[in-house]
Amino acid sequence: MIKMLKQFSWFKRMAIIIILASFVFFLLSFGHVYAPDEVKYGVTFSQKQAIDLGLDWQELYVLMLDDLGVKRLRLSAYWDEVEFANNRYEWENLDWQIAEAKKREVEVILAVGGRLPRWPECHIPDWAESLEKEIREPETLEYIEKTINRYKNEETIVAWQVENEPFLSNFGECPNLDPDFLDKEISLVKSLDKRPVVVTDSGELSVWVPAAKRADIFGTTMYRKTYSNLLRAYVSYPIEPSFFKVKRNLVKLFAEPEKWIVIELQAEPWGPVPFQNLSPEERARTMDYDKFREMMEFSRQTGFEEFYLWGVEWWYWEKIYQNNPSIWEEAKILFTK
């Protein structure tokens, strides 16, 4: 009898804990959801990615601004491009991108650092890769300083992103980033210019707090269907929009960035090899026209207001090489509201 009472007491405690946890989750999942015409969309553009796809990157860039009507843009000052040799800088291509954005009054987030968008994630120049950490880090800071000083008078730039997903150490071909060095990078940028600093993190694979505590603007990624090299299988994240509401409300207990955005919203396929080497059927497993539309609605329900789509180079590749303009045309609706 006593044993039964103890078991009942244990079940009762567990039931209370579950009920309380469910109630807390319910409260944390509340949050404003913006109407479709209130949501702000931008894109991440990568000259590297466009070239890898065999595209005329300047043609794509102009069409992205003029045909799609993109008004918010994330660009990268890839270290291995702007400082291709030690103390030898080449700014022409990035100058052109920023000038074209400025002509059209586009808002630009410019990313700096060794770890930046697009595979292999780290874009450290060959001459710096073999340097010891104690030597490479000052070289990184020098490249960042020169980049900020070159573009800090450009009004079209609204924020600086420092590194890309710096706390996602298990993804990409990158050395682990020292948080103390990240703080030095952020401090350097803030000493050179007053515009806000963006720090980013994975939406599904990170806890956000270390990144959000350092950010004026915190940017999360948002993916639903990917390929896992670890599992050697396609993966659909079993999460709902409320996951992001709860996560943001929890992180707000520890960090208070001025703004929360989705810096990388999945809008291209993700497979075991680069998508241009996949069949149309294989690409469609993670992204196609229908999934694109579903992703836009899913993301809106998360309660974020501003999204930077990931995949503009793919949309154009589909249009030019696959005779499939459907996603390009669908995206146009988002940017021309």
What does this structure look like?
By secondary structure, the protein is of the alpha/beta class. The chain has one domain (36-335): TIM Barrel (Alpha-Beta Barrel). It is 45% helix and 16% strand. It is built from 14 helices and ten strands. Strands 1-2-3-4-5-6-9-10 form an eight-stranded parallel beta barrel, surrounded by four helices. β4, α8 (179-192) and β5 (197-201) form a beta-alpha-beta unit. α7 packs parallel to α8 (179-192). Mean pLDDT is 93; it is low at 14-29.
Features:
337 residues, two-stranded antiparallel sheet, eight-stranded parallel beta barrel, TIM Barrel, alpha/beta
Low-confidence stretches: 14-29
The CATH architecture assignment turns out to be Alpha-Beta Barrel
- Give the N-terminus to C-terminus distance in angstroms: 69 Å
Task: Give the helix proportion (percent range).
Answer: 40-55%
Backbone shape: globular
Strand order of the largest sheet: 1-2-3-4-5-6-9-10
- Estimate nothing, just give the exact number of structural domains: 1
Structural class: alpha/beta
The largest sheet, given as strand count, sense and whether it forms a barrel, is: 8 strands, parallel, barrel
**Top-tier CATH class:** Alpha Beta
Strands, total number: 10
Portion of residues in beta strands equals: 15-25%
Q: And the CATH topology?
A: TIM Barrel
Radius of gyration: 22 Å
Mean pLDDT: 93
> Could you spell the SSE succession in H and E letters?
HEHHEHHEHHEHEHEEEHEHHEHH
Give me the number of helical elements: 14
CATH superfamily: Glycosidases
